[in-house]
Amino acid sequence: MSVHSSLSFHRGWQWLLEEAEGCGQCQPELCPPLLGCLAGAVLPPCGCCWECANLEGQMCDLDDTSHFYGRCGAGLECRLDLGDLLHGHVPEPQCVCSSPEAVCGSDNNTYPHVCSFQEAVNTNSSTNLTLAHSGPCQAVPQIVSPPYDVWNVTGEDVIFGCEVFAYPMASIEWWKDGAETFLPGDDPHISIQARGGPRRYAVSGWLQIQGIRSSDGGQYQCRARNQLGEASATARLTSPLNSHTLRHSLTHTHTHTHTTTSEQNLHLYIVFHVVMGLSYYCSLMWQMTRLLSAA
């Protein structure tokens, strides 16, 4: 066994050492078993033992003649992201799917591209997942990021967000419990915004309430709808106090806590001196008993 095989190296350094020593004679029976190769398997330059290919986003070797980071799996290409230069970063070669088109699986899930679909197939081969067709699956909207409950004081601003994935693309409406029409209506302190993204075939919407009032409290609902159906998610706005009342309440609570703490300290002081007095009295009685016994 060579020395480097017993050390913990980045596998690229191990490959360089192996190349320096030469490929040697191939012994397939000594090749380790491949487990969990989500991007498939590739052969290294020596062409003896198969190894797991690199996944999307992993670093790779731009030159096929070198073998440091490893090779990308089927359908993946090793590319440099020159956009890193604009941010002052050194670009690193990464595996990128050669086909950016979304695909639909037999599980009725839309995958960003065929590479992520193949990764899902390799993750669990027992599911018999197959490729249904190119392009996204047609489905009812799916809320991937729902709005969350908010607790805030009156006079402050609050924003609810909602991200929806659907094909065909969905529209988003905001409703408040008890309202007959969707927001914002004619209320000037409520506004809504929507845009596509951040992922493909997704739309994100926001509901903003400026200078919230106590009457704004309640449940708000994000409704997404396309030709195939709709989905919804709700969140609650709780606004019990305004800023002035809250500060007054906190000040009152702090004063009450301080008073309670002072009273507790006084009680402890009294108890301490009572105990010390009893201890002194017991000690004195014990000493007098000893003197009487000795006499």
UniProtKB/TrEMBL annotation:
<keyword id="KW-0732">Signal</keyword>
<feature type="domain" description="Ig-like">
    <location>
        <begin position="141"/>
        <end position="238"/>
    </location>
</feature>
<dbReference type="GO" id="GO:0005520">
    <property type="term" value="F:insulin-like growth factor binding"/>
</dbReference>
<dbReference type="InterPro" id="IPR003599">
    <property type="entry name" value="Ig_sub"/>
</dbReference>
<dbReference type="GO" id="GO:0005615">
    <property type="term" value="C:extracellular space"/>
</dbReference>
<feature type="domain" description="Kazal-like">
    <location>
        <begin position="73"/>
        <end position="139"/>
    </location>
</feature>
<protein>
    <submittedName>
        <fullName>Kazal type serine peptidase inhibitor domain 1</fullName>
    </submittedName>
</protein>
<keyword id="KW-1015">Disulfide bond</keyword>
<dbReference type="InterPro" id="IPR007110">
    <property type="entry name" value="Ig-like_dom"/>
</dbReference>
<dbReference type="InterPro" id="IPR036179">
    <property type="entry name" value="Ig-like_dom_sf"/>
</dbReference>
<dbReference type="InterPro" id="IPR036058">
    <property type="entry name" value="Kazal_dom_sf"/>
</dbReference>
<dbReference type="InterPro" id="IPR000867">
    <property type="entry name" value="IGFBP-like"/>
</dbReference>
<dbReference type="InterPro" id="IPR013783">
    <property type="entry name" value="Ig-like_fold"/>
</dbReference>
<dbReference type="InterPro" id="IPR011390">
    <property type="entry name" value="IGFBP_rP_mac25"/>
</dbReference>
<dbReference type="Pfam" id="PF07679">
    <property type="entry name" value="I-set"/>
</dbReference>
<keyword id="KW-0393">Immunoglobulin domain</keyword>
<dbReference type="InterPro" id="IPR002350">
    <property type="entry name" value="Kazal_dom"/>
</dbReference>
<dbReference type="Pfam" id="PF07648">
    <property type="entry name" value="Kazal_2"/>
</dbReference>
<dbReference type="GO" id="GO:0001558">
    <property type="term" value="P:regulation of cell growth"/>
</dbReference>
<dbReference type="InterPro" id="IPR009030">
    <property type="entry name" value="Growth_fac_rcpt_cys_sf"/>
</dbReference>
<dbReference type="InterPro" id="IPR017891">
    <property type="entry name" value="Insulin_GF-bd_Cys-rich_CS"/>
</dbReference>
<dbReference type="InterPro" id="IPR003598">
    <property type="entry name" value="Ig_sub2"/>
</dbReference>
<dbReference type="InterPro" id="IPR013098">
    <property type="entry name" value="Ig_I-set"/>
</dbReference>
<feature type="domain" description="IGFBP N-terminal">
    <location>
        <begin position="19"/>
        <end position="98"/>
    </location>
</feature>
<dbReference type="Pfam" id="PF00219">
    <property type="entry name" value="IGFBP"/>
</dbReference>
<dbReference type="GO" id="GO:0009966">
    <property type="term" value="P:regulation of signal transduction"/>
</dbReference>
<keyword id="KW-0964">Secreted</keyword>
